[in-house]
Amino acid sequence: MLDNHKSSKTKLTELGEFKLIDHLTTNFNITQDSTKLGIGDDAAIIKHTHNTIISTDLLVEGVHFDLAYMPLKHLGYKAVVVNLSDIYAMNAEATQITVSIACSNRFTVEALEELYAGIQKACEIYNVDLVGGDTTTSIKGLQISVTAIGTAEDEKITKRSCAKDNDLLVVSGDLGAAYMGLQVLKRENEVFKVNPQNQPDLTPYSYIIERQLKPEARKDIPLLLEKLEVQPTSMIDISDGLSSEILHICKSSKVGANLFEDKLPLDPSVISTCEEFELDGTTVVLNGGEDYELLFTIKQDDFPKIKANPHLSVIGHITTADEGVHIITRANQKIPLKARGWSAIPEENG
Amino acid sequence: MLDNHKSSKTKLTELGEFKLIDHLTTNFNITQDSTKLGIGDDAAIIKHTHNTIISTDLLVEGVHFDLAYMPLKHLGYKAVVVNLSDIYAMNAEATQITVSIACSNRFTVEALEELYAGIQKACEIYNVDLVGGDTTTSIKGLQISVTAIGTAEDEKITKRSCAKDNDLLVVSGDLGAAYMGLQVLKRENEVFKVNPQNQPDLTPYSYIIERQLKPEARKDIPLLLEKLEVQPTSMIDISDGLSSEILHICKSSKVGANLFEDKLPLDPSVISTCEEFELDGTTVVLNGGEDYELLFTIKQDDFPKIKANPHLSVIGHITTADEGVHIITRANQKIPLKARGWSAIPEENG
Known about the structure:
2 copies of one chain form a homodimer.
Chain A: H1 17-25, E1 35-37, E2 44-46, E3 51-60, H2 72-88, E4 93-103, H3 109-126, E5 129-137, E6 142-152, E7 168-172, H4 177-194, H5 206-213, H6 220-227, E8 234-237, H7 242-253, E9 255-260, H8 268-276, H9 281-287, E10 294-298, H10 303-306, E11 312-320, E12 325-328, E13 334-336
Parallel strand pairs in A: 4-5, 9-12
Antiparallel strand pairs in A: 1-2, 3-6, 4-6, 7-10, 7-11, 8-10, 9-11, 12-13
Helix pairs in contact in A: 2-3, 4-5
């Protein structure tokens, strides 16, 4: 999957570092007024009228992605999108990114062209400028570091820390699909290892696989909330599973919460795939991760403004801290919400 | 060297990702007025009155550093400093950083504490705030991604691209020491492998070893130039060797240059160590790298202002592009300047 789609294979050393960066970024355009200087100097220059919002992530092959089922173009796209999601989670507008990659000599120039094609696609769709970065060698595998930059006015910015007792807990879109997409891809990869001739029909899984391989960040939600004249009291993006994100908001805001199992938004294909894999849909939503939806709180008074909006679901409400953080099950049981632990660190090979 | 200086060894998994970040960053203070929100939310919030300057680098174990002779505290310090150097190279002030690390289970909590102690030291000395980052696992080794953020007024910002014919080529400090420090460390590491009991006397090399292990960025130069009322016409930091940096300025500014071998500033200990290693000092300066001094151009009219300043050396002058880029040797020979190539990509193990 790395480079079997093209016949030409150019070694990275044939170009050299500076020519490689020039080559990979030649098709990128600057479209943001706030970008005063992009790639090609010691640093980029940005001029925002309001605040500058900055977030950064490091993605590691074998930990965050597996090239056995993640095409490089999708990976480039996803690496950008997951970082932009953090900017939107501040109720802000994303404007620029920087991208640094380290890769071993297993990668060809053509492979990196694919990766950068995905990065460029994300830049176009989300209207952000690539303004800097670094291309270097690694001893093993591929590492991608993305810094996302955005802007927002003081009164729009939404932190995790300002949820208040009685606020409503709201989520965009639906949850659990990315995790179930990964389960299908892992299963198909095992089948492929046993029988490479097998041509699986993945049509029933197309939505959940797309949510895993090509997630989208909710650029539209800050705009929608502005249009609805709703200023959220707190906000976070759902990268690690709903449970851990609710606990982040509650810890930062020093509040508790009640989450209602029967309010959780699941796509029908997530429900059917959970049945097929004998997994509990609620557990998948709480612990699955990689949905990149936005979780936020609003004042009760704002409820009429968001009611019946197809993009938004009210899934619970904020309580005082001493009431704790619970999920109320369909059977009306009240169970304390726990964060998913940090995934175990793989053993180092040599 | 990783963790043999402490008896306690705590596995990373014992803390978990979020507690680990909290633990490592607990002693960091916010000191910049422009930092409106630091670590602990989806993104940091920065409010600069003027431009925001951004630069990013990815450092990879086995490519950019070797923990056999690089203590983790020094590595943390250096990772920050080399990024700040890019901000100063825009004639700007550094204000914030973000740091992301990926590390394998070979590293203990105590090892990362050492790394972050070095990062904190750099933040204190350079007066920058740590405002974000990411801690994750890697399959193999340690990767560090630093994004440096700064600010500067429009009229102060200095790009690579505005050097003009007849401008003077100026460099801060002295050159070649970091490269020769590395040669000494590599030699001592080979000796150590053969005889671990050997206690080498590194006193004669203390300056050049410090330049390699604990480089400093020239925060003082933008301030000095402001005081001297000199606005440089172009500027770059010397990370890859003088030769490649001069060629960058000439390419970006569409000019040529003459560099004078007898004007190159070398510390006496660099000259003596070059003799010991039978290396040519000029070659070391041109191709060695990691000096993190600033190279810049000024108008001839500004020469009286910088003349005899102990921090600055005039090493040549800018010409028209068609004259090319040359070094004039002590024997008065004119030799075309060539860039050092990209270092060969190591073979991937498995």
